[in-house]
Fold:
Amino acid sequence: MSARRNRRRRGNPAANTQAQAAPPQKRTSAVRASRGPLARWVETFATEKIPAGVDYPHALRTTTANPFTSLLGVTVGLVWFMIFTPLLVEALARAYWLAVGSPGEFSTTRQALVSYELPFGLVVGHLGLASLIPISFALVLFVHRVRPGILSSVAIGLRWRWLALCLVIAFVSLWVVLAVQGLLGSGGTNFALNPQSGAVWFLLIMLVTTPLQAAAEEYFFRGYLMQSLGSMIISPWFGIVTSAAVFTLFHGSLDPALIVDRFAFGVLAGWLVVRTGGLEAGIAAHVANNVTSFGLAALTSSVAQVKAISEITWVAAGWDIARFAVFAALIVWLSRGVKPQTLTPAP
Structure:
């Protein structure tokens, strides 16, 4: 018996044949049973296989993909967001109003919250936008019948190490360009400390909620929209440009410089998604931009002032676009060494 065990451990062909004789269905059942209830529940609905060897924008190009499904998903997502998010914002604002003793009219408190005049306004606004994450996941799972992890990257999940590297590059490149802009006196950021009232609370809440808000916009615009549109059109640029346009319209500004600024960010972030195979670079750039903007505002002027920006100069837009371009160039350089996965895996 001891010799037979040793032969099996050493890879004895006969022993290995017996070990592999278990019916495939039983092995599959055992694997499914070992997974958590959420994973098993997702597998129940994710009946479509992700196509092998395709880039990120075409990950939803399954055997049953069709324009109707894609347009239905985009429409449902936008309508769901326009209905559900205001309800969530209203509920959070009313909960805050009741918790602080219902001072004055609720409409006054609500306006102060959505304008970011109060620290809890960041919770209200950012968690409202964060609802785009479950919306995007639900669309992929229930409309396209694909595992939602494909939204994060072609590796079917968020690549945390790559995300961390992208975050470092995003913050460093942003601050270097801001410093150069300030030294040249070209409409640089104000670094003179003048903390607003409640700055500590603004900073603490911002550090928790802003990454969720930034990631949520990436999951919907650079994630679901690009993949849904990519399931219809072969060229990835259709998804990149269209998602950037919707992203720009979503922010609602009519100022030409601000429109160009946001559209350029959308295009560069979308291109990086294709180039690196996932949302990590776009999330990093978005997080770094928003955390820096809100953080500096709390320390030098007010968060509400940044929230109320509806127009910028062409010089400021040019510096913003230059900052995004520097970040994109550094990410491409970094990816040559790290080599993140850019195509979906084999079945």
In short: The two ends are 39 Å apart (CA to CA). The chain is about 70% helix and 0% strand. Residues 67-99 form the longest helix (33 residues). The chain has a mean pLDDT of 86.
